[in-house]
């Protein structure tokens, strides 16, 4: 057992904390209010290696551990959850499947482009009738000579509005059900691709959530990712890793709420003393801090298991379940501690509250997390 | 072009300072690279990027100082040397200057960069002392540095303005805020830093004895500044209040 940071973890923590405070924080309110994609921040994150944290240096990544990755996502999300999820999706959902299943040529081009931040990635999985039931994918890919022809619509795709590349999950053989699903890499600079509806959301408003429309979208035969028919498995493995990213994002939101509410409680005077001296407030802060620390240990353990090539599906689900619920609770209680002020946009607590909710939903709802955990225990 | 950057590890500027037994306690305090030294290291890396060569960071410190040196390596410095010795436990500006002077005497350099002061003791003494030891021209508190042919043009802050100096190289410069904008170490930089050389040497390796580096100053006592008092509101007739205010400004605030 070792709970201390390594030198590189400490340095990365310091760097991401400084970067988040000086660069991400000042832009966060506008990013949220104006639905503003933080293009400049994303560019800077690319230069710092934050868009390909666990990708090997030969593919222009940083070659760091999943624990470092979780630390970095938390620090960025501490100040802006929108920026946190843009980073998480590029790392976990776009880079990771190509890192795990891509050919050398695919890695040299697509992985290196995304890990360096030259291009942005997304994952095209969810459809109107294939959410938690991911196997029910209706988008099709049909081989025609040297090209795959893709038809269908994907919805709720994070980064969909800005992405250059999409890891796409489509059916290549409907008769085979989930064994007939395959993964592809689509260069979105393609006449057969267009962006449909852009969602107007409760939170993470600086990250785009788009509908991706594929109409006779022709891509090279070589852009099949992994084996034909293995797409469902690729999607599930990708989502396992993604949960570490979302869980770390939730930790960042939870910490933001706890730190801001604690600072306020020390300043706010009622009944002649700071409200931090009232036990009602102390217990809220004590409970939230305890739950945050517990969730963080779960998430870091899942990351550690992944770093050590051990099964981590259950632990990632546990981490995501707990971290997202702690984030929601911390934001709720945080607003409570600030009272009326917490309900206004003068303080960022209301933004944490809106941002926290999505962490209980995307990349597997809390219900799906419990399903995954139970399945792992009971099988 | 070979550049040496001298750094010090200091308390985090946001650290809560506690004094016990006439000493500043370092319990639970986060240590960082002195912010003014960050400008020096950044400038050193920029000079290298422009002119080629090597950046060596040097420091006098303890085991913990390796972290600050590693940070410089992650920013892009090539190698680091740390002088560490029990005899340097109470090192002051004089001890550090003697030690660094001996270390640098055997190194090849065109430019030496320091921060103009450390945020802990704020003495601003090492840069000038070190330049004297090495018999080098020096320019302190610089906000711009341009390398020419065998010389450098620098701008330095002076009272009420700035002056431009041409300095023969090799020379020593101390950096002021505004010299540059310091980069963050990138993640690939952090990974590369792990494999870069960080050499630890003792006083014996430099041919120095404990007497050579004996401090020339002694800290007798350390006190926290008095807690801030609430403001004073003067009430009454204008003429009386003005008279009282002038008296207070003279005798209490001592500003006129």
Layout of helices and strands, plus pairs?
The complex is a heterodimer of chains A (379) and B (256).
Chain A: H1 7-33, H2 39-48, H3 66-79, H4 81-101, H5 104-115, E1 121-124, E2 140-144, E3 147-158, E4 165-171, E5 181-187, E6 193-198, E7 209-220, E8 224-225, H6 231-267, E9 269-270, E10 273-274, H7 279-307, H8 313-338, H9 349-359, H10 366-378
Helix pairs in contact in A: 1-3, 3-4, 3-6, 3-7, 4-5, 4-6, 6-7, 6-8, 6-9, 7-8, 8-9, 8-10
Chain B: E1 2-6, E2 9-11, E3 18-20, E4 23-25, E5 31-33, H1 35-51, E6 54-60, H2 65-75, E7 79-83, H3 93-105, E8 111-115, H4 126-133, E9 138-147, E10 151-158, E11 161-168, E12 171-175, H5 187-193, E13 198-201, H6 238-251
Parallel strand pairs in B: 1-6, 1-8, 6-7, 7-13, 8-12, 9-12
Antiparallel strand pairs in B: 2-5, 3-4, 9-10, 10-11
Helix pairs in contact in B: 2-5, 3-4
Task: Tell me what you see in this structure.
- The complex is a heterodimer of chains A (379) and B (256).
- In chain A, the strands form 3 sheets. Chain A has a 4-stranded mixed beta sheet. In chain A, strands 2-3-7-6 form a 4-stranded antiparallel beta sheet, covered by helices on one side. In chain A, strands 9-10 form a two-stranded antiparallel sheet.
- Chain A starts with 6 loop residues before the first helix and ends with a helix.
- Chain A has 3 domains: 109 residues, Butyryl-Coa Dehydrogenase, subunit A, domain 1; 112 residues, Butyryl-CoA Dehydrogenase, subunit A, domain 2, CATH 2.40.110; 146 residues, Butyryl-CoA Dehydrogenase, subunit A, domain 3.
- Chain A is of the alpha+beta class and 379 residues long.
- Chain A contains 10 helices and 10 strands.
- Chain B has 256 residues and is an alpha/beta fold.
- Chain B has 2 domains: 205 residues, Rossmann fold, CATH 3.40.50.620; 31 residues, no CATH class.
- The longest helix of chain B is centred in the first third of the chain and has 17 residues.
- At the A-B interface, α1 of A face α2 and α5 of B.
